[in-house]
Amino acid sequence: MAVSLYRKYRPARFLDVIGQEHVARTLINAIKQDRVSHAYLFAGPRGTGKTSMARILAMALNCVQGGDSATTEPDGTCPRCQAIREGTSMDVVEMDAASNRGIDEIRDLRDTIHYAPVEGRIKVYIVDEVHMLTPEAFNALLKTLEEPPVHTVFVLATTEPHKVPTTIMSRCQRFDFRRPGVAEVVKVLSGIAAQEGIEVAESSLTVIARAAGGSFRDAIGLLDQLATYAGGAITLEQTLDLLGMVRQDLLFEIVDLVHDYDTRGALLFVERLSDGAVDYAQFMRELLGHLRDLYVVKHTERLPGRLALPEDQEQALLSQAARLSTGQLVTFIDLLGEALRAVRQGSEARLELELALIKMTALSGQEPGLGEAVVAREAFGPAAAQRAAAALGRGQDSFTPLPAPQAVPSVGSETAPRTSSQAASQPPRPPEPAPPASVHAAGLHPPVGTPATADLEHVRRAWPLVLEAVKKRSVALHAVLHEGRPESIEEGTLVVRFPAGYRFQVDQVSRGDNPRVVAEAVKAVTGRALAVTARLAEEPAEETGPEEEGARILSKDELIRVLKQEFGAEIIDEESDG
Amino acid sequence: MSKSPPPRASVPPQTQPVRPLKPAYLILGDDFPKIESALKRLRERIIRESGGDLDIAEFEAGSVAPAVVVNTANTMSFLGGVRLVLVKNVQVWQKAEKEVIAAYLASPAPDACLCLVAETLPAGDRLRSAMEKHGEVLEYRAPKESDLPRWLQGEAARLGAKLGPREAQLIVQRCGTNQTLLLRELEKLSLYAGEEPVASDDIELLTSATEEARIFDLVDALALGRAPSAFLAASELLGAGEDVNMLFNRILRHFQQLSRVAALREEGWSRDAIQTELKLKPYPARKLFEQAALLGVEGVARRLAALAETDARLKGMSPLPEDVELQLLLGRLLTA
Questions:
Q1: Do the Cβ atoms of B301 and A471 come closer than 8 Å?
Q2: Cβ separation of B2 and A172 shorter than 8 Å?
Q3: Chain B CB contacts of A295 below 8 Å
Q4: What is the model's pLDDT at position B184?
Q5: Helices (DSSP H) in chain B: which residue ranges?
Q6: CATH tag for B145-206 (out of 1.10.3720.10, 1.50.10.10, 1.20.210.10, 1.10.8.60)
Q7: Distance CA A403, CA A417 (A)
Q8: What is the pLDDT of residue A180?
Q9: What is the pLDDT of residue B68?
Q10: If you measure CA to CA, which chain B residue comes closest to A178?
Q11: Tell me, what's the ipTM?
Q12: Using an 8 Å Cβ cutoff, are B27 and B116 in contact?
């Protein structure tokens, strides 16, 4: 029967265990100085070499090369080493604590521990997944670890060291095995492929390494499977196909398209994905992971160990991260998260992906905050989105003046119509310079000629954004303000109505600087300079949900006007009633 | 071939005892490595003097009656020689139970050695007095937390390792105050460093930071704007199985405390006064004071706002997995 690649290439010397040089060096020195501990705890993720290292230690302690003492270079070929490698040595006891977790098993172990080794010098007990032992079994093991016979060495291995009691831990020398980076795994895979004569591109090896999640065992196992599956040379397509993964370059490509606010390109990209029978939900998850990597790199400016990639991909990640702002990344992550939630709730994955990409491309150049700007864009157009993003994203001590309200296309205003393609593909206009505004000029007088009703409509629709902006400055004020609703604009003053019985909230909003804070938030988000006052409803009003208040159903005429104005719609053929 | 087991790493050979073996010992204290070492010496001595395997009976005071202990001590050793009767945590025994042992001590069995271990027993305690009269009392008190680095340097010298004061301090910061764990880490470091002095990098590479130490690393990195350290510490904590909500609460608590310190500092309070007012230890007080000076009241407030937002998102508003949400929070805190 063919031996699996993982077993065939299992390391046989200390320094063969890649990525764990700190452990190897310490153990080698311990052997050289005759200071081998009676108990070790090897902790680390799966497939990082814990059991391999334990076996190498067992070989080093028993190899015939060492004569009467241990050796740092076990030959791996003597009968004792062979027996240990094959798992048939009488002196090396491997126990899986996940399936032998009770006190009886540990008692059995204690009963046999006093017998001297059969062939070698030292009996080695390797207890895998030691964290799975029951508390009673741990107690029994503790007694053994406290006073072990001189001819025994324990190696406890675990993936979850935090579940190992301190009493056990304090009896052991603990080594933390590090998760290797993608580059390290690729190096190992390349070596094996070369020795086995497997023809495989480095891009395929990178995909395998990423899929293995830092486990050498999984990575070599996948290479083994692929070699069998492919028959001859392993192509990238076969690798992706078998692993159900997305090509890394596709993730880079779609982020570039989004960054270039190329809605059309993004939608064509999705179409192209469908040719390859891609699992859209899987693609979204991987895109989310990619965006998260970019977000981390954006802050750390270097790749953390977990992300370590081959050099070209590392450069690509760093370079893409440099092109995107933190705000954009947060928004993209948020939008994708929303899309994935919708998919989990039963929505169609492709549709959700397309919608998310449309929103991303529409916002890409806008430096948005946390996705609130999406709402602003949908409610008021790009200029409002820009203002909202600026207000939310800065989190500064005070709201500085924002672009003038004239740029905001609104229902009833006479701004020039734009085509939908322009809306989607044109780069954003830079924010228009605004005159400096003092605190007192924060909106006591509305712009001349602006109808109060239109202003009120704007403020109502922007109210969630105003609340968010207020929250940036005062969580307490936000907590009370969100109970109120914009009711009217009277002589340049926005009246925020609270339901009867909400006297406390009215008092809090009216207190001290709070009206000014709210006024500044209103101005920052909507561009409307309004004073703010809080008012209590005179009698218990019917509970009206914010959705009802905020979203008014447009009449047919209004709808047509908005469509013409916002999207450049034209009436081609008037529908007849008959 | 001959089978020569490797010597143990822990303690070099001790000076041979010259006094005769006592019929009873009381070992007091919380310096557990030393207590362990004393028990080991006692075991070895009994084996040596008995000329055979150790005949030992071990008990936990909380789960055995003193009469059983006395009966065991009075029973002739099956193997001949001296039987060691070891009872741990005897501080839990009540007065009447201690009387039983005290009565035994007046006329102890000739071929038994009764060894009692307790963290503490008051000076006038009946059992302690009886032990002082008929046996021997040994006391091993652990060094104070502030003395641990110096203690660690002494242990390093004993192992033949070179450990500077800063490195000793770093080990304590990362690994906590459990002396036994500190010794294990030191053994490892001394092996790794060999003839070279133990360096800070070696400590970072080899030692296993406690959960507390990692959380301190995380919150300090966040307050000081050290992004790589913050993301790395969070990744390690999550990798070690820490819960996102627990981590969030620890970060929140740090910034809430920082907010109080920043407010008092702005009012003109001195560091010492703040330390007293908020009942802080000197080291955390110094760190908080420095961080508050760096961020100011407004800076801390902005970070609290970011925390409030994440709090809401973690409680159901966010569509994202919790660990992603935590990473977004780290970014917000680092740039707020």
A1: no
A2: no
A3: 327-328, 331
A4: 93
A5: 32-50, 66-74, 95-106, 126-134, 148-159, 165-175, 179-193, 200-206, 211-224, 227-239, 244-266, 271-277, 282-312, 322-335
A6: 1.10.8.60
A7: 20
A8: 84
A9: 94
A10: B205
A11: 0.75
A12: yes
Q: pLDDT for A299-345, tens place per residue?
A: 887 766 555 566 677 788 889 999 988 888 988 999 999 999 999 98
**Residues of chain B positioned with their CB less than 8 A from the CB of A36:** 6, 9
In chain B, residues with a C-beta closer than 8 Å to the C-beta of A176 are: 208
Cα distances (Å, whole numbers) of residue A465 to A61, A387, A391, A571, B85: 68, 10, 9, 34, 75
Out of A263-272, A276-285, B324-333, pick the least confident: A276-285
Calculate ∠ Cα A153-A159-A161, nearest 5°. Answer: 75
pLDDT (tens digit, 9 = 90+) per residue, A151-171? Answer: 999 999 999 888 899 889 999
Residue with tokens 């693609």: A283
Q: What residues of chain B lie within 8 A of the CB of A337, using their CB?
A: 318-320, 324
Burial of B182 from C-beta contacts in 10 A (0-12 / 13-18 / 19+) = buried
Give the pLDDT score at B214: 86
Say which CATH class A5-176 falls into.
alpha beta
* B24-140: CATH superfamily: P-loop containing nucleotide triphosphate hydrolases (3.40.50.300)
- The answer to whether residue B173 neighbours chain A at the CB level (below 8 Å) is no
Q: Note the pLDDT of residue A154.
A: 96
pLDDT at A567 over 50: yes
Most A CBs within 10 Å: which of B89, B243, B320, as the mutation test of the A interface?
B320
Does the pLDDT at position A17 exceed 70? yes
**Cβ neighbourhood burial of A169 (10 Å; 0-12, 13-18, 19+):** buried
